[in-house]
Amino acid sequence: MFEIQISFLAVIFTCLVAPVILVIYWMMHTTSTTVRLPPGPWKLPLVGNLHQMAASSLSHRCMADLANKYGPIMHLKLGQLSAIVISSLEFVQEVLKTHDVAFSQRPTFLAAEIVSYNCSSLIFSPFNDFWRHMQKICVLELLSAKRVDSFASIRLEEASNLVQSISLSGHPFNLSEMIFSMVNIIIARAALGKKWKIQLGLEQNLLCRIFFPLLKFPRYVINLKPAIEKVHQKMDKILDEIISNHKVKRNEESAVGDDHQEDIVDVLQRLQESGELQFDLTTTQIKVVTLVINQHHFIHTSTSILILKKDEF
């Protein structure tokens, strides 16, 4: 009985003291400098406005409601991250076009450092000469109108497959999921040459590291960093296989004089071998560009720890 009472008191003590310690830690790591910020909704300690964002599954509607109340420029606190939300077309043009250099830097977090090869991708790279060169390659070589038009046959084929699948379906289906799957396949074929399924799930605890970067202890408590590194190693192995297969195929077709439709990886390898670029395009950078082109559709949040699958079908 005495042991049970001691344990109960320990639990009560922990529940009372832990929030106090977190608040003190928060105050010690919060700057006291007064900054003029746009208007915004009221904020809770520690979580800021995360509770308001989590109140609705439709975050874009939540943002629209807040913008209608607080104006086209508002301030949100997402955990420890201070965010300025722009919802006016006029101000968006000012930010993304007129003053784009001033807003070009992006924050980094643990997963970005590991998965994007130490933030060397277009998304997380600092605004420098490398970023400008890679942007030029993407605009002129990878995503030009001519290049996009060259993938028209892929789009038509996959759209035809979708229509055929719907016509043969004898039961209710989710059209949004089918269209999403079709888009993924089109991107994969355009980027990699054939249908690959690379899925990288972000475990929910990773969001804690994004919104609370100062609280470094969670990464060790939940053993997150080794898990991300393990997934990155698997992903790197898959990208090595993709690049190696492309190189072998290009050499074989070059030997017999056979021309084939270039995908994104083919274009990057051709530029790497040509020596015409103003910088050395490494294999690692080819991996990063390949990953960036696909990651918008392949990365999703999941309740399971970081997942990466490869299916060739």
TrEMBL record:
Biological classification of the source: Eukaryota, Viridiplantae, Streptophyta, Embryophyta, Tracheophyta
Keyword line: Heme, Iron, Membrane, Metal-binding, Oxidoreductase, Transmembrane, Transmembrane helix
MF terms (GO), sorted A to Z: heme binding; iron ion binding; monooxygenase activity; oxidoreductase activity, acting on paired donors, with incorporation or reduction of molecular oxygen
Transmembrane segments: 6-28
SUPFAM superfamilies in alphabetical order: Cytochrome P450
Pfam families linked to this entry: p450 (PF00067)
Protein family (similarity comment): Belongs to the cytochrome P450 family.
The keyword Metal-binding belongs to this UniProt entry's keyword annotation: yes
InterPro entries per record: Cyt_P450 (IPR001128), Cyt_P450_E_grp-I (IPR002401), Cyt_P450_sf (IPR036396)
Protein name, entry field: Cytochrome P450 71D8-like
Glycoprotein found in the keyword field: no
